[in-house]
Automatic annotation (TrEMBL):
Its cofactor is Mg(2+). One of its GO terms (molecular function) is ADP-ribose pyrophosphohydrolase activity. One of its GO terms (biological process) is ribose phosphate metabolic process. Keywords: Hydrolase. InterPro entries: NUDIX_hydrolase-like_dom_sf, NUDIX_hydrolase_dom. This is Nudix hydrolase domain-containing protein. Residues 155-308 form the Nudix hydrolase domain. It comes from the Eukaryota. The keyword Hydrolase applies. PROSITE patterns: NUDIX (PS51462).
Amino acid sequence: MTILTMLLNAPSLLRIPLPLHQNPLLRFSKNFPLSSSKLLHRRFCTKMTTPTATSLTQTIHLNGKGGETGTPVEIIAAPGLSHHDFRMAIESSLFKKWLENMQCETGILTYGDMSLKRVLVQGVDMFGKRIGFVKFRADVIHDETGNQVPGIVFSRGPAVAVLILLNSGNETYVVLTEQVRVPVGRLILELPAGMLDDDNGDVIGTAVREVEEETGIKLKMSDMVNLTAFLEPATGGKVFPSPGGCDEELSLFMYKGGVDKEVIAALQGKETGLRDHGELIKVRVVPYDKLWRITADMKVLSAVALYEMAKRDGLLPSK
């Protein structure tokens, strides 16, 4: 039997083309421009390239000096990444914010000695219908030496945490949460914290909401003190926990109030969190003077440092 006869007798082996309306590559070839939102007075335009069977690609042009079009940058999907996830990634606020940071006044592309050549989008994690995390690798070159600088990015965006100080009797207590943290394989005592769920930048509102979800305590936004706002403007007024691999930027707040001993007792060991989101949280209340030694949570230690320095320099509200 010849090969031709075998193929004729086995139609399932033939490659039957999909109808045009069902072909994902042809659907992808239609332009889906990035949002027109501005990037700190800079904008970038996009031009869709023709995708191939092995890759999905988009080209962006970052503005050069004087508003001129800069060098084109290829955005490429890693093998196995669907065109839907690729589109979601490059249209996400996380990716746009990263591009914004690269081009801002203190951004690494602003000084003229670094060039962004290519971005490989490797994965997307969804939180329901919205993007939670984007993983990509940016090829950034030091122009003078031609060397590539480390550019693996785990993008999760802005987050907030709150240092809650409760005066009871002659003691000051701090409200912490005990949570399962799989990446480090441990239970961690940490500040009530959470990611910003939307793009409207409601940092204080998010902080208040996270405190209520994780501890049951209802705070007033007017009572919140932004500790990171005391940092120099050049820092962006944020804390970066792990800038070598993650773009997370933290706003740290402080709340101070007085409560009865019964409130402290009621909070201790309280089980909270959004169970349907996998949050298994227990509230822990500890004396403030012992706080810095009983947890390795970066949010706690950063908040304590900012609080103590702001108190030393007389920057905290008098009330």
